[in-house]
Amino acid sequence: MYKIEDIINKVHCADCLELMKDIPDKSVDLVLTDPPYGVNLDYDIYQDTEENWFKLMEKIIPEVKRVAKMVIMPSCQIKRLKWIYNHFPPDWLICWIGIEISPEYCKIAKERLRQEVLF
Ligand SMILES: C[S@@+](CC[C@H](N)C(=O)[O-])C[C@H]1O[C@@H](n2cnc3c(N)ncnc32)[C@H](O)[C@@H]1O
């Protein structure tokens, strides 16, 4: 397990799921994370499929809630949001609708762009 003073104020280029395993419970004030959306965006190594998104969230949400006192995480698409609500009910949710955003992203999201931020 890391001592928090050994890892703060550094950029860690790592698989966050591996790195977090050694971070003590509630030792981080805030996790602000922008995980993949499961809409087939073209990332370098992560395969952004819907199936992988569910698997990723089952690992990532309990772990970020364990290490952090507060979590802020964007989500997108109603289907993903419903899944999060059913599996890991958030304490709060902010939702807004964006109109000035890339047409490519709106095409991928297959609906008017809406963004939720939760936990
Ligand atoms: C929605 S994008 C974030 C984009 C970023 N906020 C930006 O503005 O450029 C999600 C990113 O998470 C990365 N990722 C997926 N799984 C990861 C993991 N286990 N550890 C670290 N990064 C991961 C993906 O490769 C992708 O770059």
Proper CATH architecture: 3-Layer(aba) Sandwich
Please count the beta strands (DSSP E, at least 2 residues each): 4
> What class do helices, strands and sheet pairing give?
alpha+beta
Straight-line N-to-C gap: 25 Å
The major pleated sheet works out as: 4 strands, mixed
What do the pLDDT scores average to? 84
Unreliable spans: none
CATH class: Alpha Beta
Cα Rg? 15 Å
Give me the strand/helix succession. HHEHEHEHE
Q: Can you say what the CATH homologous superfamily is? A: Vaccinia Virus protein VP39
Bound molecules: S-adenosylmethionine
**What name does CATH use for the topology?**
Rossmann fold
Count of helical regions: 5
Question: Looking across the biggest beta sheet, what order are the strands in?
Answer: 1-2-4-3
User: Helix amount, in percent?
Assistant: 25-40%
Indicate the proportion of strand residues: 15-25%
What does this structure look like?
The chain is built from five helices and four strands; from the N terminus they run ααβαβαβαβ. The mean pLDDT is 84. It has 119 residues and is α+β, with helices and mostly antiparallel strands. It has one domain: Vaccinia Virus protein VP39 (Rossmann fold), CATH 3.40.50. Helices cover 37% and strands 19% of the residues. The chain has a four-stranded mixed sheet with strand order 1-2-4-3. The longest helix has 18 residues.
